[in-house]
Specification:
The protein is an alpha+beta fold. It has a single domain, classed as Outer membrane efflux proteins (OEP), CATH 1.20.1600. The chain has eleven helices and eight strands. The strands form three sheets. The chain has a four-stranded antiparallel sheet with strand order 2-5-7-8, with no helix packed on it. The chain is elongated. It starts with a helix and ends in an 11-residue tail after the last helix.
Length: 487
Amino acid sequence: MKKIWLTVFLAGCAVGPNYQAPENDVADTWTSESPVASSDAPLIKWWDVFEDPLLTKYIEMASEYNNDVLTATSNILVARAYRQIAASSFFPMIGADVNATKTYFSKNGPLFASEPSVGSLPGTISPSTGLPLIPQFPQIQSLYNALFDATWEIDIFGKTRRTVEAADAIIGVSMEQRSDVLLSVMAEIARNYMELRSSQQRSKLIEENIGILEKKAVLVHKQLEAGYVSRLDDENIRATLASERALLPDIEAQIYRNIYTLSVLTGAVPETLVGDLKAPQPLPKAPDTVAVGLRSDLLRRRPDIRRIERALAAATANVGIAVAKFFPTITLLGDGGFQSLMLKNLFNWGSKTWALGGDITMPIFEGGRLMGNLKAARAETAATAHRYQQTVLNALEEAESAIVAFTQDLKTSKERREATDRYQDLVGLSEQRNAKGLVSVLDVLDSERQLNESQQNVLNSDTSKLLDLVVLYKALGGGWENACCEE
């Protein structure tokens, strides 16, 4: 037993468990074998696939100026500072103290002797004994000190090393938290940008439909005056027209909400981007295929998985800290410098003074506090391990679902575009037949309304496709890799 303790003392060991990254048996292939998903490495700057300079500009602005990202960056600096504080325990703590005191000593204190004396001075009689007091040295003294003191806790059992290990892991947690925030902000900018452009195009289509309805309302009203239709037909077309007009204010409000959100996401006041974005622009184009990489690489790319893995490392190190508190704490002590009763002699060699020593403290009984700390640390490590596994499962579910959703969006968009082409042909045929007097203008307007409705359906599917693509890129976890933080 003595040999074991001697080996531990001389070699120095970090007690507690050593961290090992969790192993996962995630397959390389995706369960949803989508024809639009390739195994190529996912894009880092995934927003480039939309080929929209404004979208790229706003994402770059958010990376630099978004306040949530800046807050997360500051938290990294805080974590680094705490790591520096933790690492300082590896070194001796050295301090300097220069002081001067003037002391008036009690006549009844231990520094005076009570003895019978002949010819004692007035006022030097001890009130307690009635005997004269004989001073052993001046009753008023000055003392000058210029001292250095040092303490050094020897990290034999690894408490400091485990503390630094935990601090390093917390830095990793903070860095991955920033990456996660950045990725979320990027996705929010892309989502709001797509919704903005979609609302602008929807507003345009609704205005076109209103124009068609206005023409139809005029014709129906004329037919009513001529007695060809009933008042019911006239009121019906007017109600339809009013309902369509009522859609525009909500769309206009949504446009401004998207612009304001984009402004705030880039770190600016809400009205900043109104001038850039108020003019309508078409929706960006979505690619026909998406590089999703290997399924197992998701664990390496996703910041939320990386963050919880670092949290698990910190929790494991905390177990080591809790174990180390059961062992003795060994501290070396020392001080030295100059001490003198006279200031002029303070820095003479004869005024030197020094002291060396050591301190060993060992917990004997603390009412279960140390064992409670250890149990809590182990339980927190187990809970973090479960959170890690759940985070992996959630990430896989999100990515798989996003691949399926985007794949189906492409199919829906294709079918709706085909329907729109058919309605376009229908409008052309109606116009030709109207020119020959075979159908009325109302029939032409009805076919135009069908085309307009089909175009809105295409817009809806294209918007869903883009939004699901943004969700997919976020689920794949790219976009944060080029981000860095200053020391």
